[in-house]
Every structure is written in C-alpha cells, then in structure tokens.
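stuck on whats below:

***
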Amino acid sequence: MKKIVTGILALIFAGSCIFAGGAKDSGKEASGQVTIGVSIWSSTDTLGSQCKRILDAAADALNVKLIYIDQGHISEQVTASAETLCAAGCDGMIICNSASAEMTSVINTCNENGVYCAQFFRYINPDANPNEYALAQKSKYYVGAVHEDEVVNGENLVSILTKKGCRKIALEGWEAGDATFLQRWDGYKKGIEKWNSENPNDKAVLLDPQYGGTTSDTGRATAEAIINANPDIDSFIAAGGGGDTLVGALAAIESMGLKGKIDVVSTDFLADLDKQLATGGMSAESGGHYCDPLFAFMLVYNTIKGKYATSDNSFYEIKFPYLYVASSEDYQNYAKYFVDDLPYNAKEIQAMANMSESELAQTAEKLSIDDVKSRR
C-alpha cells in the first residue's frame, strides 16, 4: 500500500498542472489502470509539445492515465511536482529535472510513497554528483534514465561552426547550473580545444555563456545583449531549453539585420526549421526525435507491470543518438517521419511493453530516419 503525502495537493501551482493524455480524457478509469505522472519544464513549447504528443499516443496504446505538471525548470517546482504526483495517486512518474541535486528530494519522495521514477533528457553524472548517483543506485523505485551523449553533441555543433569558418562563437544557455546545459557546454569547450589544437594559427574563441531562460522574450533580450556587447561575433549557439529561447534569439538576430551573417546552431528542433535553414536563419540543428520521454515512460510502465526488476545497487540507462539537420533536404526527410507522423505507431509501442530492458535499449539506440523508413 502506498503512503500518500497528506495536504500536498496545496502545492499545485496555478497554471502549472495539466491533466492530459490517453484514456483518461473520457473520464473513465478502467479497473487496474496504470497512472503515470509527467514532470516536464513545459508541455506546450516546441519540444515539450512534441514530447506530449508521443506520450499521449503511448498512453492511448497502453490504456494509461497521464498526469502532466509543467514546472518551468524552477528547482522548488521540480521537487514539488514529485510530491504532487505522488499525492495524486501515480504508480510511477517520469521527470525532466533541472539540476541533478533536485533528484535527492525526488528519489526520497518516490521511496517514501512507493512510486517508480525515471528521468528523461537527463541522467545523474557519477563524477559530478556522486551522492545523488549513490542514492539512485540504492533506490528500488528509481528505475533509470534516458538521455543523449550531450558532450559529443556539443563537440559536433562546434565542429560544424569551425568547419564553416566561424572563429568567434557566442553562447546562450537557458538556466545556469542545468545538468544538461553543463554537459553541452563541456562539449562546446572540447570542440574549441580540439580545433585550436589542430589549427594553432587559426584559433577559435567561445564566449562565456549568458542565460536566456526558457521563453522567447527572455531569449531575445539575452541574444540582443550578447550581440551588442560582442558585435564582431560570427556565430551563435543557442544551447537549448525547449525551443522558445532559440525562437527569441533568432528574432533578435533578424531584427538587428544579422540574419544570414551570423551562423546559428542549436539543440531542440524548431517548428519552422525548414524555413530557417532555407533562409539562412539556422545553419544546423541537433535533436529532433523527442523520444526520450517515451522510453522513460516504457521503463516505468514495464516496471509497474512487474516485467523489469529493480535493485538496491543499480538502475537502467538508455542512450539515444542525436539527429542532425543542416539543409532543407535533411529537414524534408526528418519531417516525413517525425513531424507529419510519429516515429512509432500504436502496435510498435505495444510491442515495447513485451520487450526486455536490453531489447528496449537496442530499439532506442537504432532510432534514425532510416530506421523509421525501414518500419514503414
């Protein structure tokens, strides 16, 4: 029997909870229906809405009730979201936290309430956060993490810029201290170090990051400030944050008459990426598949169903490959299988419910445009 935290529903913050998804829209809950919570920075921005779309499809395919909480990557709202989802009667939850330190509270809350938890777009670095990592290993309710190799992603984006001739690169993050941003930043720096080591007479410079939050307005204001302070930059990295930060940065660059003059790369695909690539607004973008939360959902769902064992000394980890798009032709191939349609249909999602953890991980690792083509 789960222990329910009393009085915690008072912590639900106005406008941040969205009860959505799957079979629960009918207002009927089948006997024994699984309920899974989704703690996400936003379920309405470019990336968040794509995540919600595929999670809703999974909920429909497996008759799962979903409860969404939009927490804005604000630390106290991230930790409160876990308490709220436990109080709402969730059997499990998936969470995209901000700082890894938040996972101490999240994991303890899940332990206390017997609620399974997995991270998406995130993992706990054992070197940077050894205490949180050890807690995750010991927890029977922390199922695991689904994430990309963000350091490699950062290196690849810087490599794209330096090979294009860019030598002074500005950097806009979203929240200082965010776990994923720190990994990407490490990758950007490694990319610069590699270029400068191989080209000592043609060195590139990466400016220190400025932070633009997760809205288009703050993203635009931050980009304007960066450019005004560094009018000689030839390139710009918008590190991520869900997509709206980049939308604002691109608006700033265009309004300042610099569209096509500053090469822009980013992670988190835009809704109008095809147009931006065609008109010089974007040079390249990584991301695109938005399936981390789907596989975190499957880890939790299969654990709730008793198919995956948990232990007090380990957890599951699934790594995803990034997609890279650098031309309109690239985007058209991506759009067919990831925008116009979802990369997995109901039957394929239902099949995931019968996969072993290793089979699920292998399915994630091979996701690509060619992979979806082969299944269609």
In short: Residues 179-198 form the longest helix (20 residues).
